[in-house]
């Protein structure tokens, strides 16, 4: 089977290698952003495991002799994969917006105001950061389907499977108001993965460029204070910069 996978630079069970990462501020008020980059890669590993399960159980569910629980396992693998991809998307959005503000103002924002797909979509296209402008279709698909999985009371009525390839289906009911009307959403799983891969590649390119612009020889960022164990204010090392 030709299983669609997120292109995060490694197979899910391959150990994380330093070549996959790059410097980001390790001492931001929001935590170690280099570590966050590694955790993002690990989250995508888990999404790839769920994608592989989705493909396997989709194939079994189509066989003349139905495999026990194959349809259910396919559906729940889809749900988990979508959640992991949605969460990774929100993390990337938050990370890029936070670092963009730091670069523009010289300090970290007191609040990450653009921290999810909804916050991006609330802005006019020409006011969005560059990595967010070309991925509106992906954002809408992820937002609608993930929210249906999370909130829609009618989604459990859905029992559909893709005929030709694994697909994701959802029934949404806005705020569970009957007057809103039920909406049916569907997307081929491969199409969703391809859309995310394009967003992920552009986002990683932006982050690498940020790293190159702000990292100085020796490893410290421009204007950053290295983390030190010393607490004595009279220490010669205190207040020094690299």
Strand percentage lies at under 5%
Morphology: globular
Mean pLDDT: 89
Please provide the ordered H/E string of secondary-structure elements. HHHHEEH
Major beta sheet, specifics? Answer: 2 strands, antiparallel
Secondary-structure-based class equals mainly alpha
End-to-end separation: 51 Å
Number of helices: 5
Summarize the structure.
The protein is mainly α. The protein has helices at residues 33-61, 70-105, 117-121, 136-151, 189-214, and strands spanning 167-172, 183-188.
Fold and architecture overview:
It is a single chain. The protein has a domain at 25-134 and 192-214. Strands 1-2 form a two-stranded antiparallel ribbon. The N and C termini lie far apart (51 Å). It is globular. It has 242 residues and is mainly alpha-helical. It has five helices and two strands. Helices cover 46% and strands 5% of the residues.
Top keywords for this entry?
242 residues; mainly alpha; two-stranded antiparallel sheet; 5 helices; 2 strands
Which helices and strands occur, and which strands form pairs?
Elements: H1 33-61, H2 70-105, H3 117-121, H4 136-151, E1 167-172, E2 183-188, H5 189-214
Antiparallel strand pairs: 1-2
Helix pairs in contact: 1-2, 2-4, 2-5, 4-5
């Amino acid at each position: 089977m030709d299983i669609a996978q997120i292109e995060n630079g490694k197979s899910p069970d391959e150990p994380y290698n330093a070549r996959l990462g790059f410097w980001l501020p390790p001492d931001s008020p929001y935590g170690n952003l280099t570590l966050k980059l590694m955790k993002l890669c690990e989250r995508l590993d888990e999404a790839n495991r769920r994608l592989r399960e989705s493909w396997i159980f989709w194939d079994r569910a189509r066989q003349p002799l139905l495999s026990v629980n194959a349809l259910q396992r396919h559906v729940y693998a889809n749900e988990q994969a979508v959640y992991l991809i949605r969460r990774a998307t929100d993390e990337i959005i938050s990370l890029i917006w936070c670092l963009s503000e730091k670069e523009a103002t010289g300090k970290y924002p007191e609040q990450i105001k653009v921290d999810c797909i909804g916050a991006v979509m609330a802005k006019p296209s020409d006011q969005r950061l560059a990595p967010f402008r070309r991925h509106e279709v992906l954002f809408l698909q992820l937002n609608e389907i993930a929210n249906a999985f999370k909130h829609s009371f009618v989604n459990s009525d859905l029992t559909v499977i893709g005929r030709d390839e694994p697909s994701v289906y959802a029934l949404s009911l806005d705020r569970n108001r009957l007057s809103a009307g039920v909406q049916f959403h569907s997307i081929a799983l491969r199409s969703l993965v391809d859309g995310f891969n394009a967003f992920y590649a552009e986002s990683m390119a932006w982050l690498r460029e940020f790293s190159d612009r702000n990292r100085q020889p020796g490893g410290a960022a421009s204007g950053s204070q290295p983390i030190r164990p010393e607490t004595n204010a009279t220490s010669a090392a205190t207040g020094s910069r690299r």
